[in-house]
From TrEMBL:
UniProt cross-references to InterPro entries, sorted A to Z: Glyco_trans_1, GS/SS, Starch_synth_cat_dom
Protein name from the UniProt record: Glycogen synthase
Glycosyl transferase family domain: residues covered: 282-435
Family in the record: Belongs to the glycosyltransferase 1 family. Bacterial/plant glycogen synthase subfamily.
Any one GO MF annotation of this record: alpha-1,4-glucan glucosyltransferase (ADP-glucose donor) activity
Organism the protein comes from: Candidatus Sulfurimonas baltica
Pathway the protein takes part in: Glycan biosynthesis; glycogen biosynthesis
Domain Starch synthase catalytic: 2-229
Annotated binding of ADP-alpha-D-glucose, by residue: K15
CDD domains: GT5_Glycogen_synthase_DULL1-like (cd03791)
Keywords carried by this UniProt record: Glycogen biosynthesis, Glycosyltransferase, Transferase
Any Pfam family the entry gives: Glyco_transf_5
Entry's EC annotation: 2.4.1.21
Database matches in SUPFAM superfamilies: UDP-Glycosyltransferase/glycogen phosphorylase
Amino acid sequence: MKILFAASEIFPFAKTGGLADVAQALPHSLSKHIDIVCVMPLYGFMEKSLLQKSELSFRVTIGDNTHFLTLYTSSYKGVKTYFIQTPLLSDTEDLYSSSSGSYANNNPNFGIFCAAIVKLAKELHVDIVHLNDWHTALAALWIKESAPEIKTVFTIHNLAYQGLFDASMLKYFGIDTKYFTIDGLEFYDKLSFIKAGIAYSDIITTVSPQYAKEIMSERFGCGLHTFLQTHKEKIFGILNGIDLELFNPQTDRALTATFSSTNINFKYLNKKGLLKELGIEASDRPLFIMISRLVHQKGFDLLLDSLSEILKRELNLVIMVDGQSSYRKKLESESKRHGNLSLQIGYSEDNSHRLYAAGDFLLMPSLYEPCGLSQMIAMRYGAVPVVHGVGGLLDTVHENQQKCGEGIVFLYPTEEALLDAVERALELGKNTKEMQRVISFNMECDFSFDKSALSYLEHYRELVA
Ligand code: GLC
């Protein structure tokens, strides 16, 4: 069985969020069982000299335009990735924005990427194409139309991003108007890429069992809940995992001191080092960390409303944020007012590892969270998660020691509930013995992708049987 796995971002080549981590870790786990290759766009910021030029190159026609595409390849941890160079997408310096601003939901050049995925799937004679999020979703329609023998799996990492375009773009993409219906690609008079993935793929997966349920409700369905309900027989929730070799506190070279569940005292050297570096006094206080993109989803409104109260407590808070938004200014002004809040602007892989290793608690007040990886990484590095109980957070963080892992869960996205959760974390922190038990317990949990990879395998096998 041969699989082509397509995503708009794959670690370490391009990353804005968890999608990139999963698009690396899942194929890597799957490659232990089957033949799998990946494909992503070649972006303008990528150094071509580090890639090999592929012997493949091809032409794709969408609508009235024909594009000549050059392909490059590279391998990471034994998995080969194809990079599609397109004249348009490859000019971008940023994944989802240009110098004139963000593409928000709709860079049409991902349509060219979709056409390239279909072409590559045919060239490589794959059995299944595994598509991820809206950037790849149109490929499900085109495969159904032109190569129905190839099966498609569509994974929803975040339903809020849908790839919506003006209906006039149907012609640009060369899509027959017969597909522009409520059962097909139409969404409030717009052309929706994500609906192509939902309607025409053979199987849909989401990144946690809880999120699979949630997206079929009005609260989390982003306007698509009834549409998803009509496809519920083919929707499955499979929990994400993390790459335990990349996230390993016992070997992590980014850390001040490596540590394991049996010598967590070394963890505190990381905390001491970080606080000294940041010039934070009262370093014996519990350290809360947060690592997040500056987007509404991650709960910044709730956090900002509660921040002054939180910071009155005997704690330190370090937040690493990425992205442009009005939240940044507000956070910056808060950090000027409060000595126990430190901001790290810009994402750095190594610095994020250092933060996880230093933190006593990870704060994750997400309004919704399809899966979330930070809480799993935090537990692996001995930081206890304090999370809003939604989506994958509910599947991975529990208030009792029956199930991996353990942490503090608040069920309502209110200031009161968040403050109460912080208080409970502080209580736990005071009880050194109990705190150490939770840390060791979490560090022993298996958050790898291996178990979930087997679930994907089962679905693949059913599709080609
Ligand atoms: C998206 C989701 C996040 C998930 C990640 C990987 O970034 O917002 O919850 O963990 O995709 O699937």
